[in-house]
Design brief:
With 246 residues, the chain is mainly alpha-helical. The chain folds into 2 domains: 15-87, Arc Repressor Mutant, subunit A; 92-230, GntR ligand-binding domain-like (Four Helix Bundle (Hemerythrin (Met), subunit A)), CATH 1.20.120. Helix content is 72%, strand content 3%. The protein has helices at 15-18, 25-39, 50-57, 61-73, 92-116, 119-138, 141-157, 162-174, 176-183, 186-204, 208-230, 234-245, and strands spanning 47-48, 77-79, 85-87. Strands 1-3-2 form a 3-stranded antiparallel beta sheet. A hairpin with a 5-residue loop joins strand 2 (77-79) and strand 3 (85-87). Helix 2 (25-39) packs across helix 4, helix 5 packs antiparallel against helix 8 and helix 10 (186-204) runs antiparallel to helix 11. The protein is globular.
Length: 246
């Protein structure tokens, strides 16, 4: 899925984007790079430099640096010793370790969220989910990821535990390979709208067990989908084994 950000024929951002509006130039650059990562145009370990991005988007260094900063904070990039930015690459075993910890912390968080979430925060979750549904209908993957992050941020803030909230946000950001594999399936993304509604209903009813199950099941389903993508197709695996036997 490609970004909705339009570029001119020379690859730079259109003048309307450069002149401002509801979205900043950094937003446009960020979304376009995210879409390139998800589409495979940018792959793990690919290098990004300020100079290349300035030339590509026809923007100044300030919004490019802001976009790079946001990409790093979201877990898309790693910064090396000499300041070079590269698309982050995570090994399967790192993903497994990350999710083992994340599931334990998310389980603990559900109890705190049920206890502390306010009506105002619940209303905000409903508003965010309506925006998420709109992004799903538009098949705007970058927007879906951004809005889903807002939904998660409201939930973790409701724990009223700064350290737990920061750890959950960090773990979620570093888990982007799993989330991206999950969200690229439009049907699963559409199902998430209903799951969000069910979570909100559980929060309104202060149903700890139901809310916990919804949260943990969604995380596990995304991880299972990622695992399945790592398994070679049966025909390829058989062919490989046969070659070894020759």
């Amino acid at each position: 899925m490609r970004s909705t950000v339009r570029q001119d024929t020379d690859g730079s951002l259109p003048r309307s984007a450069l002149m401002g509006g509801h979205r900043t130039i950094a937003d446009e650059i960020f979304d376009h790079i995210v879409s390139d990562i998800l589409s495979g145009s940018l792959r793990p370990r690919d290098r990004l430099t300020e100079r290349e991005l300035v030339a590509r988007f026809g923007a100044s260094r300030t919004p490019v640096r802001e976009a790079i900063k946001r990409l790093r904070e979201r877990g898309f990039l790693s910064i090396e010793s000499k300041g070079a930015a590269r698309i982050r690459d995570m090994k399967p075993e790192e993903i497994e370790d990350l999710y083992a910890l994340r599931l334990r912390l998310e389980r603990a968080a559900t109890v705190l969220i049920i206890k502390s979430i306010t009506e105002r925060e619940i209303v905000e979750l409903k508003r965010i989910n309506r925006r998420f549904a709109k992004a799903v209908r538009a098949r705007n993957l970058a927007e879906m990821l951004s809005i889903r992050a807002e939904f998660h941020a409201v939930l973790v803030a409701a724990t009223r535990n700064r350290w737990l909230a920061e750890m959950l946000v960090m773990l979620r950001d570093y888990a982007y390979p799993v989330r991206h594999a999950h969200w690229q399936d439009v049907r699963r993304a559409a199902q998430t709208i209903e799951v969000h509604d069910q979570m909100i209903a559980a929060l309104e009813g202060r149903e700890t067990g139901r809310f916990r199950s919804l949260v943990l099941n969604q995380i596990k389903e995304a991880l299972d989908m990622f695992r399945n993508r790592l398994v070679p197709a049966p025909s390829r695996r058989v062919a490989y084994v046969n070659r070894l036997a020759l």
